[in-house]
Amino acid sequence: MYLSRFLSIHALWVTVSSVMQPYPLVWGHYDVCKTQIYTEEGKVWDYMACQPESTDMTKYLKVKLDPPDITCGDPPESFCAMGNPYMCNNECDASTPELAHPPELMFDFEGRHPSTFWQSATWKEYPKPLEVNITLSWSKTIELTDNIVITFESGRPDQMILEKSLDYGRTWQPYQYYATDCLDAFHMDPKSVKDLSQHTVLEIICTEEYSTGYTTNSKIIHFEIKDRFAFFAGPRLRNMASLYGQLDTTKKLRDFFTVTDLRIRLLRPAVGEIFVDELHLARYFYAISDIKVRGRCKCNLHATVCVYDNSKLTCECEHNTTGPDCGKCKKNYQGRPWSPGSYLPIPKGTANTCIPSISSIGNPPKFNRIWPNISSLEVSNPKQVAPKLALSTVSSVQVANHKRANVCDNELLHCQNGGTCHNNVRCLCPAAYTGILCEKLRCEEAGSCGSESGQGAPPRGSWGLLLFTGMLGTASPLVF
């Protein structure tokens, strides 16, 4: 009896949970940059694509209001309650903490009652427009992973634009328009995200869904991130491989969900009628109690940790990369052009680690390694690290003086893409890779590399490396 009752309750709980949570709370993998694996040669590092966890990004932003003096309370003023717009005995006073409504109250913990909120001055200068720009800046590139949610304590504005920047606020582009009448306000036909598709997911739309004027039950405005993800990953985001594949191969899609700054442009407060009541202008203002922005630091799939230090976010880069976004190879690790990591193949992706530069290795005797003189390497393209080799400059005497030249080791000449070094003479490569240093995709030999396979062609400059390591093979035969 008790068992059947327990099973019934459990089934009910599973059903309710699935309804209440249409999307998984945490989606995706890529939380480890490298792991040790055991091979015939012992423990070795296996590298993979990685990224920081999604988190509440409002903890790291700076907020700026324009005009700067738009916050209410200086001088003190009265305003009308939202529930009863003709009860105008509420006071905003910046000099009294209990009556002040500064901008930081848009981002504080919203568990108290009454709610804390930022509030603008009232529309006392009507008919001059009451317009406010709220700029959220991270001084870092971030990737959005969940809906942007803005909760108003006043009525939702009649007209608003959400904008984004990818260059730290130098230029702006619209994300979405919001209005009670899109055609009248922005000369756009009203749409919702449900009207979009995979092919139109990047379209900038105007929606009337979140602009119902001066009502008490409708406070929230959304910018739907997950609904756009769902066009590729399915309604419950179960097919993440499809979304990752699109993000990997479509730069415009990836950039659409990437920002350095967001700007909320409040253009007209909630009026609720056709005409503004000029006798009660204290009822018109903006008030925001909460803004939610979830995302992660953009680290180009080369880091799992993003550090906040001295009011600045920075990726802790792996894979021999460096920079705020892990956007370049470290010094002495420029043996091939830098590349972001790849989500594919699922579930570990491809690390695309930076490899040592030929010029940084030289010919140190203690490693018993043969390298041609740097002056003999002809670089055909300054941006292409791998050089052309002038074979005639490597003397046969230099090779003859060494019984065996190292092709790989665990110090400077690392096997790539999870390969392991066998007795310093060859790399034991994973099934998907081949080449002297496992730097070449095996699918290339079959001519099947492409977007469908999730694997790309090897980076430019690999042929120079192959030629060079092949030349070393004259000193000691390689076994494949």
UniProtKB/TrEMBL annotation:
This is Netrin G1. Keywords: Disulfide bond, EGF-like domain, Glycoprotein, Laminin EGF-like domain, Repeat, Signal. Disulfide bonds join 429-438. SMART domains: EGF, EGF_Lam, LamNT. It holds the Pfam family EGF_LMN_ATRN. SUPFAM superfamilies: EGF/Laminin (SSF57196). Residues 46-296 form the Laminin N-terminal domain. PROSITE patterns: EGF_1, EGF_3, LAMININ_NTER. GO terms for biological process: animal organ morphogenesis; axonogenesis; tissue development. It comes from the Eukaryota. The gene is Ntng1. It comes from Nannospalax galili. Residues 404-439 form the EGF-like domain. InterPro entries: EGF (IPR000742), Laminin/Netrin_ECM (IPR050440), Laminin_N (IPR008211), LE_dom (IPR002049), LMN_ATRN_NET-like_EGF (IPR056863).
